[in-house]
Every structure is written in C-alpha cells, then in structure tokens.
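Record type: ASSEMBLY
Status: queued
Input:
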Amino acid sequence: MSAEVRDVFKLSRDWLSVQEVVDTVSSSSCGAISVFIGTTREDQVDGRKVVGLEYEAYESMVQSELTKLCADIRTRWPSVRHVCIHHRLGWVSVGEASVIMAISSPHRHEGQQAVQYCISQLKANAPIWKKWLVVTV
Amino acid sequence: MTVTVLFFAKSAELAGLKEEELVAVPTPISSKDLWGLLLRKHPRLLVLEGQVVLAVRQQYVAICDQVLTLADGDEVAVVPPLSGG
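Status: finished
Output:
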C-alpha cells in the first residue's frame, strides 16, 4: 500500500475550482474529504460598500509557510492523507471564493479539525494581504 | 552587505516601491537597527511603527534586539499585518 502523501498549494489569478481542489486530495484510503471555502463578503468600510478585494502575496514565502503548516497538521493529526490549498491573487469580486482548502482523511473527525486549524493558521502566518475596493453608497 | 528589501501592502504604498537594494548594511545587526535603516530611507514607513515585522530569508523576525547575521543577496521583507484567507 502506498504511503505517499501530497501537500499541494496554488496561488491563482483565475477563479478557483472546488472540484479541482477536491480531486487533488481524493484517495481510495479515505472516507472523508473536509473542505473550507472562504468567500469574499459584501461589507461596508467607513460607510462605503465593498465590491471586491485585491490580494497580494510574498509568493515564495507563502510556499515555505504552507509547507511548515502542513508538517504541523500532520504532527497533530497523523492520519491526514492529502492537503490542498488554493488562494486567489489579484482582484476578487464579492461572492467569489478567495481560498479553497481540502483535506482527506480515513475518518471525518481528524479532517474536520485539521481544516479548521489550517484556515486559522493560514490567516495567522501566510504572508498574504488583502485590500478592499470600495464604492460610495 | 547588500540585501534586497521587499515591500508589501501598506509598506509598498508608503515607500513608493516594491523592491530595492540596500547597500552597506552592517552585519551582525539587530532587527531594530535594520528597521531604523529602512526608516531613514523611507520616513513615511514610520506610520507602521509597532505594526510590522520583518522576514529575513523567509523567517519572520520581530523588530527588537534580536541580532541578525546577514549575507550578501539576502532577502528582507517588510511585513505589515497579514490579511490572507
């Protein structure tokens, strides 16, 4: 039986595909794929309406930070099989997905916990920044 | 030492650029003194005082008395508060 595990990261200027992220982690040894999708919310900033976001990143360091994050996840939840994280760069309109992550695991409990941890840690440690595009309401 | 400084987000807006070479940087140097060199070149960065960290060779470094050993060609990034995800 193969013990190969995958950690796959992508920064993309195009809209993200949930199917692609899910397909990247699926495995016949896993009974669960846990998914988180972060979407761009319509919001108000200083009385002005948010119509979109622009993301920028320190791309090479995003890679190294996500690599460390995956190692951390695998230490905490050793049964996790594959991890895939896709994040947008550039302009993202309200309603679109900014980040999609999927984690496969034999059973759902560890995958669900790992994916919650994964998004929290990405927000805390990945060198990515957003800027709001606003219009006056 | 000559290091490459990368500016991101608000720090790029304030400095007016995304990348520059910083020459004659002493080594070893504290992260606080390195930040001081950047402030002298780009005084508008002062607005971010207390809110930024640096990343040296892709490792986060707080602005404090921590001593850094820099090598020619090292990458130093100015990191405003993160907002990914």
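Annotation: The mean pLDDT of chain B is 97.
Annotation: The beta strands of chain B are 3-7, 19-22, 29-30, 53-56, 59-61, 67-68, 75-79.
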